[in-house]
Structure formats: C-alpha cells, structure tokens
Amino acid sequence: MHHKASRKQIDAVIATVKIMGLTAKPIPGSQRTAIGVLGNKGYINDLNIRDLPGVKEVIHVTKPYKMVSRDFHPRGTIINVADIEIGEGKRPIVIAGPCAVESENQIIRTAVAVKRMGADLLRGGAFKPRTGPHTFQGLEKEGLKLLALAKKKTGLPIVTEVMTPENVSLVSEYADVLQVGTRNMQNFDLLRELGRINKPVLLKRGMSATIEEFLAAAEYIYAEGNHKVILCERGIRTFETATRNSLDLSVIPLINELSHLPVIIDPSHATGKRSLVPPMSKAALVAGANGIMVEVHPEPDKALSDGPQSLTIQGFEKLMGEIRKLTSFLGY
Ligand code: PEP
Ligand code: MN
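^ thats the input. predicted complex w/ manganese (II) ion below
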C-alpha cells in the first residue's frame, strides 16, 4: 500500500482478496503496510486489486515462502532476546557453550567462563538428537534445570534444542531461544507447534536442505504466528570427508537478499574440527552474519559429545579477543 493509504483503503483491499477466495495478511511496517496474499495455487490475476485506491504496487511472489521473504518485509527483522538485539545492523552476537549439558560442574564452569569472556547467550543441549541410540542422549529435564541454574548465576539467556512437539511447552519454560536441529528442519509438526509460542526459534539448516527448503521451513513457524525466527547455517553434506560438513558461507549474503530474517553461523558442526572454528567464525562475520554459535567445553577430551570440535575455554578467550577487534573494524 501507498504510505499514505488509509485504514479504510487497506480494509477494502483485504475484503477484495477475501472475495477472491484467498487469505490476506496485513504486515504493518514503519514506512507502509504490505498485504500478503496467501492460499493461491498459481499466478493470480491482480486486475481486481491493482487499481484499488491506496494500492502502490502488486508484487507477485512465486516462492514457497512468502512471509519470510524480503518481498513481504523489505526491512531486516530484529529479534530481541532479553536485552540483546539480533539482526540487520546490530552487533553480531556470540552464542557459546557445550554441545550437551553433562553435569552441574561442567555447565556452570563453562557458563561463568564464557560470560566473563563476553558471550551473549549460553547454549547447551538437554535433549540431544544423536545419530545412534547407544550414545549419550542428554540429561533431559535435569539438563534444563542445570541450564536454569547457569542462567541464574550468569544472567546469560539460554539456547537449547527441542526435538518433539510434545516437549515444546516444557523446553520453553527454561529456554530463551528454542533450537530446531538439522535433523528436524522438516519436522513440520514441530515447526507448527513452535509457531504457536512467543519465544524466538533458532532454526538450523537441514544437512541436505536447499536454501528454498530452509526458508520454507522458516515459513511454517512464521505463518503460524511466531515471527521470531533466527536462521542458522551449520554446514551441509557434500562429497568431502576431511571436514564433518561443508560450511556454506554464501547463504549469508544470499539469505540477506531473499529474506528479512537474521542469519547466524555454527562453525563447530560445520567443520567438526576445533582448529577450523576460529577462522570460520571470523569469515562468517566478514560475510555479514548476525552472529555465531560455537561449542566450548572446559575439558573437550572428556566431552560426552562433539569434543573434537569444541573450543577449550582458553581457545574461546582467544577467539573473543579476535572477534572484538574484527567487530570494531566492521564498525560495531
Ligand atoms: C547442536 O547444536 O548441538 C546440534 C545437534 O546441531 P545440529 O542439529 O546442527 O547437528
Ligand atoms: Mn554438538
């Protein structure tokens, strides 16, 4: 709609869209209101809409995702977690912590250390999606309680994974950001359930998902009503076996063109190798990532999962020093 369009003109467009048998979603912006049209099977003849008073232009979006696209929402979305802002133009954030919560000592030691070194959020899995059923599956509710203790001690907001729709309400009692793992990116029941809560969701890219499938998965959460979605690239499967996955850094500028949602990078799962985490973290920030998420463990050799890719506390301290220099160079 034109920026001076009246409420009456907006309502008239919505009514016309409904008469056409389609759904209209008004998306108010600071400059103008856009009206998203959903529910069409193919190209829409826009003759009935285009000449209505107040309409500035009709943009046809031929993608499986619409509400998360830049076409619908030209300005970058900023997501607030506690007092931290994540998104376009904001200082890139750092999420740090172990792969899994293993014990009170382990999570508190890590939380206190990463807080002191400047991390913005604490990560740690309580429900772990492991490749085989005979490995450590996480401390579950006990792990969530330990994360709450770490938050109480450090003030760091918590990022933790939820694997099933049934556990969304339990995990959201403890988490500030709910993570969807790579193996669940297309668990549509889980995505829909997360669309009904009022907490940010960190959606990881499926290990074999295209960008279009990734954004369509985000659309599931968004369309259900939860607009707080943070995208996370964590490496994809390729023929290469020297690294755990192949980090696709081009998603940062590409998603910034296609979508208004924030994008962060997880260089730990992307590479699987501790020594590669600092250079890839810095590369992500230079490419324009809105943040990074790195695994840190006080004793990586004893970690119950993902030790080889976890930074030591000293390693994380060194990386944070480098990130500070880099973000100041980048103008934050
Ligand atoms: C994790 O972040 O601990 C995790 C399991 O990641 P991914 O789903 O990307 O493998
Ligand atoms: Mn892990």
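The mean pLDDT is 96.
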